[in-house]
């Protein structure tokens, strides 16, 4: 659960804490993008992080995954302080975030993109002897991942020729190949066609069945949040505003105003 904010119901689903932020803050000049956010995330829980544009959601994700360093505060993984660790080290420890499109290898085939992630996960590095010995198994596993994200038909085309929606599916496939302990999805269905969205949502539903996984989801579509989330955390102007079970959080007047842009419901006299 998160400290010092509106808490509705039991927000501590699942087993023990896997990820925690303590007074985590980031300032860009005079602007405070994330303001002393303390929050615990537990295994077997999908937490949706919501808020209006500029609320600090992506900055908070960047702090957890290591893309940016905090001005103050700490990030802990299974009780270990990882605040000073690089992105790659956090990834090897179990924090996985959907790859940005710029991190794809555009001139390599789709299956080779996935194979390279699997190779990295197995820590085979650039030892060509070991890579060659494991190549068949890596390619077979890569093909399985592509089937899961409905990209088997595009496995041997360069990543650069994929549509935007297909590239987003490949991002998710790369994250699946990494098989982290912490899954971080930042608007995974953004830019996808109506036909492509169900593939990603089905994958996230499947991940929820794995009790050892902790899932963080930034998402603007409230129908997706209502369906998938076990818990909602609300950020607004960098501050943690609310934390709790989805229906209770969405019903809060402060959330209705800040996130949905609605006037609070007035009770009849």
Q: How does this model look, in words?
A:
The protein is α/β, with parallel strands linked by helices and 269 residues long. The chain is 35% helix and 25% strand. The strands form two sheets. It has a seven-stranded mixed sheet, with helices on both faces. Strands 3-2-5-6 form a four-stranded antiparallel sheet, covered by helices on one side. A hairpin with a 2-residue loop joins β2 and β3. The longest helix has 21 residues, at 128-148. It starts with 5 loop residues before the first strand and ends in an 11-residue tail after the last helix.
A few lines on this structure:
Helix content is 35%, strand content 25%. It is an alpha/beta fold and 269 residues long. It has a domain at 1-88 and 214-262: P-loop containing nucleotide triphosphate hydrolases (Rossmann fold), CATH 3.40.50.300.
């Amino acid at each position: 659960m998160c400290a010092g904010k509106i808490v509705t119901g039991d927000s501590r689903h699942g087993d023990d804490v896997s990820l925690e932020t303590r007074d985590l803050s980031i300032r860009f000049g005079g602007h405070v993008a994330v303001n002393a956010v303390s929050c615990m995330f537990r295994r077997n829980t999908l937490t949706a992080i919501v808020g209006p544009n500029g609320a600090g959601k992506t900055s908070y994700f960047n702090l957890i995954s290591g893309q940016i360093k905090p001005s103050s505060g700490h990030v802990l993984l299974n009780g270990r302080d990882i605040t000073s660790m690089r992105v790659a080290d956090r990834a090897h420890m179990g924090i996985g975030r959907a790859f940005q499109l710029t991190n794809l290898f555009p001139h390599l085939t789709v299956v080779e993109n996935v194979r390279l992630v699997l190779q990295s996960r197995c820590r085979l590095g650039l030892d060509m002897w070991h890579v060659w010995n494991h190549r068949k198994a890596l390619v077979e596993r890569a093909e399985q991942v592509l089937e899961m994200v409905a990209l088997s038909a595009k496995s041997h085309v360069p990543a650069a020729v994929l549509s935007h929606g297909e590239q987003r599916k490949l991002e998710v496939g790369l994250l699946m190949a990494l098989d982290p302990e912490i899954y971080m999805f930042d608007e995974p269905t953004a830019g996808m066609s109506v036909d492509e969205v169900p593939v990603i949502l089905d994958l996230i539903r499947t991940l929820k069945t794995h009790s050892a996984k902790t899932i963080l989801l930034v998402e603007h579509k409230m129908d997706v949040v209502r369906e998938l989330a076990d818990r909602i955390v609300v950020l607004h102007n960098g501050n943690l505003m609310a934390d709790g079970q989805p229906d209770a959080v969405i019903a809060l007047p402060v959330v209705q105003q800040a996130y949905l842009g609605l006037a609070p419901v007035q009770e009849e006299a």
